[in-house]
Amino acid sequence: xxxxxxxxRRALARYLLLRLVLIVPTVWILVTVVFxxxxxxxxxxxxAQGGRLPAAEIEARKQAAGYNDPxxxxxxxxxxxxxxxxxxxxxxxxSVSAILVRYGPATMELVFWALIVAFAVGVPLGRxxxxxxxxxxxxxxxxxxxxxxxxxxxxxxLLLKLVFSIWLGWLPISGRASxxxxxxxxxxGFNTHFYIINALGTGQWGVIKDVLLHAVLPGLALGLLTxxxxxxxxxxxxxxxxxxxxxxxxxxRGVAESKVVSQHAFRNALIPVVTVMGMEIAMMLGxxxxxxxxxxxxxxxxxxxxxxxxxxxxxxxxxxxAIAVVVAVASFLIDAINALVDPRVRY
Length: 347
Fold this sequence. Notes:
Layout: H1 2-41, H2 44-49, H3 55-65, H4 71-83, H5 96-131, H6 136-150, H7 153-167, H8 179-186, H9 195-202, H10 205-242, H11 245-252, H12 257-269, H13 271-295, H14 300-310, H15 313-341
């Protein structure tokens, strides 16, 4: 028994170490693809300022920024900067690292609210659909899941704004907080840039309420997209688990159906949800670009769209790289949780 436990721990350690090591080549490949793709388009200064500045000034700026150097030299300089936490500078000479620190928490906060919505909607509806297999409730819930998974996130966002902000007037139409509250949150002594944390730090219910109300519609728009995935996963896996031998044995022992579902089948049906969480976080970060732009939620997605419009490829490159790192780390953490929940993935 002791040997089995030691063997299991070693298998877990090997699995986690392998997954951790794989983060490096994964991020490196993504960073490399982004870098050379941007260089194929052209240098950032010409792309952003071409036609606005004299050719001599553009050439001087390119020389000063090192864009006249060979591409391989620029690539090496870029990697060296990343290793030191330097993501480059925008065309208007802002530090991309400072932009990531300033606006990254907004995107993380949005993904957090969206995950709450996804779990709160997806898990109970998926469970309900499985319990009422092929009945009216199941058909309605499946239709709901397909509708929100297939609908473009910006369309859902606009629809939510139309109903809850314009028609009903219940919720704010855009932003992370009202202007007065935002000024207060940005001027706190220890600014985390997470508005909910800053709001809780003030201890003022009015400020907390304002932040929460502004998060409802963006969280719903992005969260309902993932809720559709969770509904289908929970439903399918719960149906499969309910047909398993150990569930049949529990029923034969006279265990109540509600207990069979909640204590025997449901826990096993949650494992696939944990498995796909890494992919869902990546999808959420992609959806965050449209969600933040629609709600003027000033996170990395919003500013990525702005820098794309400005053709500021250094900023786009830095933000994309940061998102790739976040996705890789999140996938590792999900894999670690999955290995702890389901020992089969370690081997």
